[in-house]
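Researcher: Hi, I'm a grad student and pretty new to this. My advisor asked me to get structures for two proteins we've been looking at. I'm not sure of the right format, so I'll just paste the first sequence and hope you can take it from there.
Model: That works fine. Here's the first sequence with its structure tokens right after it:
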Amino acid sequence: MGGMLALGFAGFLGLLKILLMALAAFGLFDAAFRREDAFRAADKQNKVFWLIMLGLALAVSYLFSIFAMLPIAGAVASIVYIVDVRPAVKQASGGGSGWGRRGGGSSSDGPYGPYNGGR
């Protein structure tokens, strides 16, 4: 009975470690594709700072046990980026995703509304 419980707990910790790594990887991937000037416009730390922080968060969540202090600090950094920095940078860069996708609207929309072809 005790062995099954320990095995289940180890499986839970493994899933938690994968979740923390995925969180840091998502933040790192997202920050890599954001524009540098959007970080300054949003009055957040610069892009290089967040790339280093999220890269370190990914590395320590992979290398260290979940009970160590470094993966917890990495998880906090990842959560701060995703919850606070990412929305501000996204809004400062025009609300788009930053990956080349257009927002809503038609392909014939101009800067002041739909283009009607001179009609």
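Researcher: Oh nice, that was easy. Here's the second one.
Model: And its structure:
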Amino acid sequence: MLLFFITPLRGLLDRQILSSYLQSLGIWTIPLFISTYVLVAILGLPITMHTLAGGVLFGFGWGTVWSTLAATLGALGAFYFTRYIFHDWAIATFGNHKLLRKLNQAVTNKPFNLVLSLRFAPIAPFNIINFLLALTPINSRIYTFATFIGVIPGTVAYTWLGVSGKSAIQDNELFQFTLASCFLVLLSLLPFGLQYWQRSRKLP
């Protein structure tokens, strides 16, 4: 399992590419990191590597802050992009899809709780959620706030992986990396555990 997480981190650290690039950017490091993160999210590309890189570049604290901000802005950008540019095409193509009908119903009842639950699990498809929620009548402010809160746990997990992965590769320190990996796995399994617990409570 550790190799699954550490392989992409090794690519980030090879030949100290990030360190050299960071020194050359100076004060533009943070704006460039956030803007590229947002662009990646809007384009529907995976954001995991950016979050890992945030931990490598900025450390745990600031890496979590900048990645959380960037993920929220990226989700909002993708939301507006879908809602106002591709909305008609998307509704014509996916409007009768069973999942979208369920989302519309859930958004009507508890929009904040819906978005929060969808964002909480790190393994949830971030870009697909952006796309589908943009096709619902959810209020953009509720969407943004719930997204901001909901992405924090996963951002913490991947940032911690970035920081501890750097130590694991450079200093052969595996303890923190093992803890971070276990935290990510537990966080990913938590929604399934909650669903099982809720179903068991309903049984006679």
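Researcher: Is there anything I should tell my advisor about the second?
Model: You could mention this: The first helix runs from residue 2 to 13.
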